[in-house]
Amino acid sequence: MTRVRHPSTDTVPPVPTASEGEAPARTRLLLAALRLFSEQGYAKTSIRAIAAAAQANVAAVSYYFGDKAALYAAVFSEPLGDMHSLIPDFTDPDMPLREALQCYFRGALAPLQQGELMRQCVRLHIREILEPTGQRDRHMDKNARQPHQAFVGLLCRHMGVTQADDGMHRLAFILAGLAFQLWSHREVVDAMRPQLLATPEAVDAWIDRMTAYALAIVAAEQALRGAEPPAPASASAARAPRRKKTAP
User: Fold this and answer.
1) Which helix (H) or strand (E) holds 12?
2) How many other β-carbons are positioned within 10 Å of the β-carbon of residue 219?
3) CATH assignment of the domain containing 229
4) DSSP state letter for 64
5) SS3 state of residue 39
6) Which range of residues forms the domain containing residue 205?
7) Which residues form the signal peptide (predicted)?
């Protein structure tokens, strides 16, 4: 594939794979922007460099996104989907706790199957912490704070807690941490035991284990509060959990 050069950057390779090269211009721009923003940061990445990498016209950025800031915001929320879109799924009031937790973890771990795309998103967030633009704070409300509040509400409902207290928020953070610590340790897992994340089936094994661990932690919290643990899901529900949509 021919390397595209532009004065604003030494080497800006186009979006690398054939499938991406054949993707719509908006998708190519989004993926190219993710890669360049994650590698160079917001300030050092120009619209011209993104357009060149995506093999698109500079005007296409304005047409699809408006401006550089809007493109940067889209890069934060679109490539891997977001937990906010899963709130109606894992908070379904008719869903048993086991199935709700499976739905939550399935959505949280879905990006691990995206390979390099997921690694670029992690690098982007790390770079935003080091070189803040304010986008992370805006992203935090929709994709962290709102899902957290929904998760707390879910746990309170299943545990019979009428008012969320520090203990319930602590519980939600601990359970969410089971999934998101795996994100931050992805490269360590790949180096030490790559088969643990190599296939969709391997990720499903993590989901099943995390669900079991989460139920045990919920039972421990119930015991600390002096209440009966929630009734387990039926055997049939445990064997065949309902599949819910996940973040793409």
Assistant:
1) strand 9-12
2) 15
3) 1.10.357.10
4) H
5) helix
6) 83-239
7) none
Domain of 59, CATH number, reads 1.10.10.60
**Assigned token pair, 76:** 């934060």
**Which burial class, exposed, middle or buried, applies to 225 when counting CB atoms under 10 A from its CB (0-12, 13-18, 19+)?**
middle
Alpha carbon distance 63, 58 (integer Å)? 9
Residue 9's DSSP bridge partners are: 6
DSSP β-bridge partners for residue 4: 12
The two beta strands, 9-12 and 4-6, are antiparallel
Shared domain for 69 and 118, answered yes or no, is: no
pTM (two decimals): 0.65
pLDDT tens-digit map of 67-89: 999 999 888 877 655 565 677 78
The helix/strand/coil state of 101 is helix
Distance between CA 64 and CA 154 in Å, rounded? 37
The angle, 0 to 180 degrees and rounded to 10, between the axes of the packed helices 146-159 and 200-224 is 60
**Do 101 and 160 reside in the same domain of the chain?**
yes
Model pLDDT for residues 119-162, shown as the tens digit of each residue: 787 788 788 888 888 877 776 766 678 889 999 999 999 999 99
**112 is written with which tokens?**
């691990």
Q: Judging by beta carbons within 10 Å of its beta carbon (0-12, 13-18, 19+), is residue 234 exposed, middle or buried? A: exposed
SS3 state of residue 48: helix
Q: How far is CA 200 from the centre of its chain?
A: 16
Distance CA 50, CA 48 (A): 5
Q: How confident is the model at residue 100 (pLDDT cuts 50, 70, 90)?
A: very high
